[in-house]
Amino acid sequence: MGIFKRGDSWYLDYYVGSRRVREKAGSAKGAASRALSVREAEIALGKFNLQPRANIPTFAIFAERYESVVSVHKRGRAVERYYIQMFVAVFGNKKISEITTEEVEGFKSYRSRHVKPATVNRELTLLKHMFTKAVEWKRLLANPLRGVRSLNVPARVERILELGEEIRLLAACDCVRSRLLRPVVILALNTGMRRGELLSLRWEQIDLIQRSIRVLNGKTNSSERSIPMNSTVFDLVSDLARNKKSNLVFPSNRKIGERFLDLKKGFKRAVQLAGLRKIRFHDLRHTFATRLIQSRADIITVQHLLGHAKISMTARYAHSPNHAKIAAVSRLDKLFCSQPDPNRSPEPNGAGGDAVYKPQQVNTLGP
Fold it and tell me: In three state form, how does the secondary structure of the chain look?
């Protein structure tokens, strides 16, 4: 057993039985010496096991196996496949046992300069799961990515549309070359359905007699929920039903039998034409939920309408809008007006009691 240096790195050199092992230990000689002592003790106690070389695939081969066994059952397999192809371009020719935490940290740093932190975290989550499976399938002894931390993602500011903003947005939808954008937006504001749920909506899910829409939970595919139609939704869906030419409520104009896809660009253009602060399509769902809470709907009902698995997700919408906060603070003005002034004398003519302090001007911003 011993250590040696090659380039800027120190290596361990030892035997396990008849097999010789050379293992990279870092750039510090002291750390290499300590690592060698640990290996020596593990071998003596029979606790150090080597992974059979013939059992360790390259990352490219392992990624192909992962796709065919794991990814194929996921809803987001198309996006996942794109991520995996990117991983293969970086790590493909290496054996999975040769990929180090340091290399993954370098990949994380590189990606953080080109995409948002949330995207980097999604990529890391997938990569970690791939190595977790490698351990389960006895291709690795340990997951080298366990110490790789996710990036900090700033909390998103949820945008709630005011009534005036909604009117401007719907008017702008009529100016965009997308005949289905306006009805999709109206449904989102009045049902709280997710974009994917709306675009995959089929006529068999709509009951015009019972005035309800049956929705398969678009995030988990695990449960259904029923959303009652208000008059706005009923009138809109009835008009669409008169001209239906597909099993889909929002079919593609280009490919028969496929759903409408070109929504992101049209919605972005409508937001710009309406002169609104940057909003996402998902903010329409936030608007629906917040308006229900403001109209005194109970939070359990809102949870069921949104299809949330946990009520903690729904509780995010139980907040006060800005004008309600202003009205609440303004009530302190009236409270102040009703208090006696300790510096004034009682009213003359035997009125008795304390005089009430009445300022000449009171700023009342709310009820």
Answer: CEEEEECCEEEEEEEECCEEEEEEEECCHHHHHHHHHHHHHHHHHCCCCCCCHHHCCEHHHHHHHHHHHCHHHCCCHHHHHHHHHHHHHHHCCCEHHHCCHHHHHHHHHHHHCCCCHHHHHHHHHHHHHHHHHHHHCCCCCCCCCCCCCCCCCCCCCCCCCCHHHHHHHHHHHCCCCCCCHHHHHHHHHHHCCCHHHHHCCEHHHEECCCCEEEEECCCCCCCEEEEECCHHHHHHHHHHHHCCCCCECCECCCCCCCECCCCHHHHHHHHHHHCCCCCCCHHHHHHHHHHHHHCCCCHHHHHHHHCCCCHHHHHHHCCCCHHHHHHHHHHHHHHHHCCECCCCCCCCCCCCCCCECCCCCCCCCCC
